[in-house]
Design goal:
Elements (H helix, E strand, L loop, with lengths): L1 H10 L2 H38 L5 E5 L11 H8 L5 H7 L1 H18 L4 E14 L2 E8 L9 E5 L7 E4 L1 H7 L6 E3 L3 E9 L20 E5 L2 H6 L3 E9 L13 E6 L4 H42 L1 H9 L4 H39 L13 H27 L3 H5 L9 H9 L5 H9 L4 H24 L2 H6 L10 E4 L10 E12 L2 E8 L8 E2 L5 E2 L6 E4 H7 L6 E6 L2 E11 L6 E5 H8 L10 E4 L10 E4 H7 L1 H36 L1 H9 L4 H42 L10 H17 L1 H9 L3 H8 L1
Parallel strand pairs: 3-8, 5-7, 13-19, 16-18
Antiparallel strand pairs: 1-9, 1-10, 2-3, 2-9, 4-7, 5-8, 6-7, 11-20, 11-21, 12-13, 12-20, 14-15, 16-19, 17-18
Length: 773
C-alpha cells in the first residue's frame, strides 16, 4: 500500500523527473563515452610507442654552424662560400656534415652520459593532388629511436615506393598499390605511423592539422636524399635518468621532454586530462542531479508530513515508511544510469574516431569493462542512496506529534538576511518577490552553479569563435599575394613578385625566433595591427608578431635585445602585427640584408611573394596562399562542432536545472499562490512575484560568472603557453556579454513556460481547501 501511494505521488511529478533523468543520463553518458573513447586509443598507443621506442626528449638545435664549429677548416671553407646551414653543408659535403653531427652528439652525451642520442632528419614538401595543394613531411627511417610503425602493407623496399598515413589515404581515396605523384610517381606500399608525430605538425603553426591535405611519408634512404624539399634536423634521445633540460651548448636551442612537446606529447595530456575531465564532469553533473533529487524528496515529504505522522502514530516505524521513497528513487536513478551507460558506449566510438581524425595513432575495438560499468552506474547510485537516505532519515526522525503539527517558520538564512538588508527600503511586494527565491540556500546554490557552469561553457565557445582561424591562417586573409616561394639561388625578380628575406636563427630572451625582412613599400604582404591599421617598417625599429608579444609580454615602445650571429642588437618595438602563426620579428629587407652580410649588400633575399606561380626550377618550395587557407578548414569545422557541443550541453543542463527548480517552487507554494490570488493580485503579478525573482538572479549569476569564466580561461591560456609554447588567441568582446545574457534569458523563459501555466491554473479555492484541512 505504501509503495503504491509513493508511486502515485511520484507519477504526478513526471515532468520534473524527466528533467532530472536528463541530468542523470548525461552524467553516466559523459563518463562512459569519454572513458571508453579515450581507452580505445590509450591501450594500443602505449604498446605502439613502446614498440617503436619513442624519444624521451628532443633537442632542437641551430640548423646553422656556430662560431666554435667554424674553427674546423672544412666547415670554415664551406661557410666562406655561403654554405653555413646544416642542409647546405650536407648537400655539399656529406662527410663534413656527418662529422659535424657526430661532434654535436658527443657534446650532448658528455652532458647526459646515460642517454642515447640519434639524428632526426626530415624534409617538408608540397605537391598537387586532385587539383589541391598538399603537404608532406618525409621522415628518414631511424635506427633505434622513433622507429616507424606499419599499420598495413609494408615499408618501401624500392626507390619508387612510399608509405603514408592511413587517415590521409582514407580522406583521399588512396589504397595500397595506388600511385601518387610527389614530384615523381610513387607506389603506395603501406600505411605508416611515427611515434614522434602523434600530431601531424610540420611547422610552428600548431593548428594546421588537416589530415586530408597533409601526411607523414616514409621512403627509402636513397629516395629521401634525392627528393627536393626543405630539410631540417634535430636530435632525439632516450634515457632512464633525469633529462637535463638546461644544456649550455652553443648549438642547443631547447631541450624538451616528450610529454611537453605538442607534436608527440599532447596525446599524454589528452589521455590523462580527458579521463580526469570525464570523471570530474560526471561527478559535477551527478552532484547537481543528486541535490535536485534531494530537494524533490524533501518537498514531497514536507507536503506529506501529516500522512507520515499519522502512519507513525498507528505503528509504522521509520524504516517501513522510508523504504518506498528510497527504493523507488533508487530504481529510477538506476535505470537512468543504465541508459546513460549504454548511450555513452554507443557514442564512445565516434568520440574515438574524432580523436583519430587528428592524432596519428593505432586504435582497437572498444571492449566493455566491468570497472567502467561499476563506476558509471553504481558509484553515482551509492551517492544517490546516501544523500536521499540522509534527507529521508532526517524528516522521518521527527516524532508523530511533531509531524502532525504545523511546521514553524524557518528562520532566515544568511543569504536571506543579506538580501533583506539590500531591500530594507523596498516595498513589501518586492521584498516578498526576492526573498522567496533565496529561502532555501541549497536550492539557490544549485541554481547558481548551474548558471555558472553554463556561462563558462558559453563564454568559452564564443571566445573560440575565430581563434583557430587567427592561428591557422593569421594574416593570410589580409594578404594580397597568391604564392609564397623559397629559393637557394638568386633568380631575377619579375613583375608581380616581391622579395623577402628570412633568418630563423635569431634569439630574443633565449627564445628562437625568425627575423623576416620585407620591402618597406611592399604591397603583397602588408602588416596590420589588431585594430586593422597598416604598420610601416622602419630601419631603426622592429615589428613583432602577436604570438611572440604574448609569450614574452612585449609592448609597443619597449626595447628588446636580439642575438644575431653572436651579436646583440637593440631595437624598439614600433608595432605588433596581428599574426599568430609563428614567432616573427619584422625588419626592412635592406637592414636585415646588411646585418647578415656584414654590410656587403642590402639586396639579399631567399623568397618571394607572387601573384602568379613562379618557375619550379628557380624555387624549391612553392606554397599557395589559398591552399594554406583551405588546409585550415578541417580544424575550423572541428572547432565549430565543439562550440556547438559546448553550447548545447550547457543549455541542456541549465534548462533542466531551471525547469526543475521553478516547477518545484510552484508546487511547494500552491497555498501562497492561491492566497495571492484571493488577495486580488492578477495572474501576471503572481507570476512575477513567484518566478521573476529567479529571472533577476539568473542575470546576476550570469554576470558574476563571466569574470570567473574569463579567469578560468586565462589560466588555460597560461598553461598552454608555458607548457607547449602555444598561444590561444582567445578574444573577449563586449557583445559576448549580450549574447550570454540573451542565452540565459531564452533558457529561463523556455524552462519556466510550463511553471507559469501551472500558476495560472491554481484556483482561488486552494487557500480555502488548505484552511479547512
Amino acid at each position: 500500500m505504501l509503495y503504491k501511494n509513493v508511486w502515485k505521488t511520484l507519477s504526478k511529478k513526471w515532468m520534473q523527473l524527466l528533467a532530472i533523468a536528463i541530468i542523470i543520463v548525461m552524467s553516466s553518458l559523459t563518463y562512459t563515452m569519454m572513458f571508453y573513447g579515450i581507452s580505445g586509443i590509450e591501450v594500443p598507443t602505449e604498446e605502439y610507442l613502446e614498440e617503436s621506442n619513442q624519444e624521451d626528449f628532443a633537442i632542437e638545435m641551430l640548423n646553422r654552424v656556430t662560431e666554435e664549429e667554424l674553427r674546423d677548416p672544412d666547415i670554415a671553407t664551406l661557410a666562406g662560400t655561403g654554405m653555413f646551414t646544416l642542409a647546405d653543408i650536407k648537400q655539399t659535403d656529406e662527410d663534413v656534415f656527418n662529422r659535424l653531427i657526430a661532434s654535436r652528439i658527443d657534446a650532448v652525451e658528455r652532458e647526459m652520459p646515460e642517454a642515447t642520442i640519434e639524428l632526426r632528419d626530415f624534409k617538408t614538401i608540397t605537391y598537387t593532388l586532385g587539383d589541391a595543394e598538399h603537404r608532406g613531411l618525409i621522415l628518414k627511417e631511424s635506427d633505434t629511436i622513433n622507429r616507424s610503425y606499419v599499420e598495413a602493407g609494408s615499408r618501401p623496399n624500392t626507390n619508387d615506393e612510399v608509405a603514408l598515413n592511413k587517415k590521409y589515404a582514407e580522406e583521399n581515396g588512396i589504397e595500397i598499390g595506388d600511385t601518387i605523384d610527389l614530384g615523381r610517381p610513387f607506389t603506395v606500399s603501406g600505411f605508416v605511423l611515427f611515434p614522434d608525430y602523434t600530431l601531424p605538425l610540420f611547422d610552428d603553426n600548431f593548428f594546421n592539422l588537416d589530415p586530408g591535405s597533409q601526411t607523414l611519408l616514409l621512403m627509402t634512404d636513397e629516395s629521401f636524399e634525392s627528393t627536393v624539399g626543405q630539410e631540417s634536423f634535430r636530435l632525439s634521445g632516450v634515457t632512464e635518468q633525469t633529462v637535463v633540460t638546461d644544456l649550455e651548448l652553443p648549438f642547443v636551442v631547447s631541450v624538451m621532454e616528450t610529454e611537453n612537446i605538442i607534436r608527440s606529447g599532447a596525446i599524454y595530456s589528452e589521455i590523462s586530462s580527458g579521463k580526469a575531465m570525464a570523471l570530474g564532469l560526471s561527478l559535477f553533473i551527478v552532484s547537481i542531479a543528486v541535490i535536485i533529487v534531494a530537494i524533490l524528496i524533501s518537498n514531497m515529504l514536507e507536503a506529506e508530513r501529516g500522512q507520515i505522522g499519522l502512519l507513525k502514530a498507528i505503528g509504522y516505524n521509520r524504516r517501513q515508511i522510508a523504504a518506498p521513497y528510497l527504493v523507488l528513487i533508487l530504481i529510477f536513478a538506476f535505470f537512468m544510469l543504465i541508459i546513460g551507460y549504454f548511450l555513452g558506449l554507443y557514442f564512445a566510438d565516434p568520440l574515438k574516431q574524432l580523436y583519430l581524425d587528428f592524432y596519428l595513432l593505432p586504435s582497437i575495438t572498444i571492449a566493455q569493462s566491468p570497472l567502467v560499468f561499476l563506476t558509471a552506474v553504481f558509484a553515482p547510485l551509492l551517492f544517490f542512496a546516501l544523500v536521499a537516505g540522509a534527507v529521508i532519515y532526517k524528516i522521518m526522525g521527527e516524532s508523530a506529534l511533531a509531524l502532525l503539527s504545523p511546521r514553524d517558520n524557518v528562520s532566515l538564512n544568511r543569504l536571506s538576511r543579506f538580501v533583506s538588508r539590500l531591500l530594507k527600503r523596498a516595498s513589501g511586494k518586492t521584498k516578498f518577490k526576492y526573498l522567496y527565491a533565496v529561502k532555501s540556500t541549497g536550492s539557490f546554490l544549485i541554481f547558481f552553479l548551474g548558471i555558472l557552469f553554463s556561462t563558462i561553457l558559453i563564454v568559452f565557445a564564443l571566445m573560440m569563435n575565430g581563434a583557430v582561424d587567427r592561428m591557422t591562417v593569421g594574416g593570410l586573409n589580409e594578404a594580397v599575394y597568391e604564392y609564397e616561394a623559397y629559393t637557394d639561388g638568386s633568380p631575377p625578380i619579375e613583375d608581380g613578385q616581391e622579395p623577402f628575406l628570412t633568418y630563423p636563427f635569431a634569439f630574443v630572451e633565449e627564445k628562437l625566433i625568425t627575423l623576416k625582412g620585407l620591402d618597406i613599400d611592399n604591397t603583397l604582404f602588408p602588416l596590420r595591427n589588431e585594430e586593422g591599421d597598416t604598420l610601416t617598417l622602419e630601419p631603426d625599429g622592429l615589428i613583432v608578431s602577436s604570438s611572440l608579444a604574448l609569450k614574452l609580454g612585449l609592448e609597443v615602445g619597449q626595447d628588446i635585445d636580439i642575438e644575431l650571429n653572436e651579436e646583440t642588437l637593440t631595437y624598439p618595438i614600433t608595432g605588433i602585427a596581428d599574426e599568430f602563426s609563428g614567432d616573427f620579428a619584422y625588419l626592412p629587407r635592406t637592414t636585415l640584408s646588411e646585418l647578415l652580410s656584414d654590410g656587403m649588400t642590402d639586396d639579399l633575399f631567399n623568397g618571394i611573394y607572387a601573384m602568379e606561380r613562379p618557375d619550379d626550377s628557380d624555387y624549391t618550395t612553392i606554397l599557395s596562399r589559398q591552399g594554406l587557407i583551405e588546409q585550415s578548414e578541417s580544424i575550423n569545422q572541428y572547432m565549430n562542432f565543439m562550440m556547438n557541443v559546448l553550447i548545447g550541453g550547457a543549455s541542456l543542463i541549465a534548462f533542466s536545472i531551471l525547469f526543475v527548480l521553478t516547477a518545484l517552487t510552484v508546487e511547494k507554494n500552491y497555498y501562497v499562490i492561491s492566497l495571492l490570488k484571493v488577495m486580488g493580485y492578477q495572474k501576471r503579478e503572481v507570476r512575477s512575484m513567484i518566478l521573476n525573482s529567479y529571472f533577476i538572479y539568473a542575470l546576476v549569476s550570469a554576470l558574476l560568472s563571466i569574470p570567473i569564466a574569463l579567469l578560468t580561461l586565462r589560466v588555460i591560456i597560461v598553461v598552454f603557453a608555458e607548457d607547449y609554447g602555444l598561444v590561444l588567441p582567445l578574444e573577449f568582446e563586449w557583445i559576448y556579454i549580450v549574447y550570454t545574457l540573451g542565452a540565459v534569458v531564452l533558457l529561463f523563459f523556455l524552462s519556466t513556460f510550463i511553471s507559469r501555466r501551472k500558476i495560472d491554473q491554481i484556483p482561488l479555492q486552494e487557500v480555502l481547501k488548505t484552511y479547512q484541512e
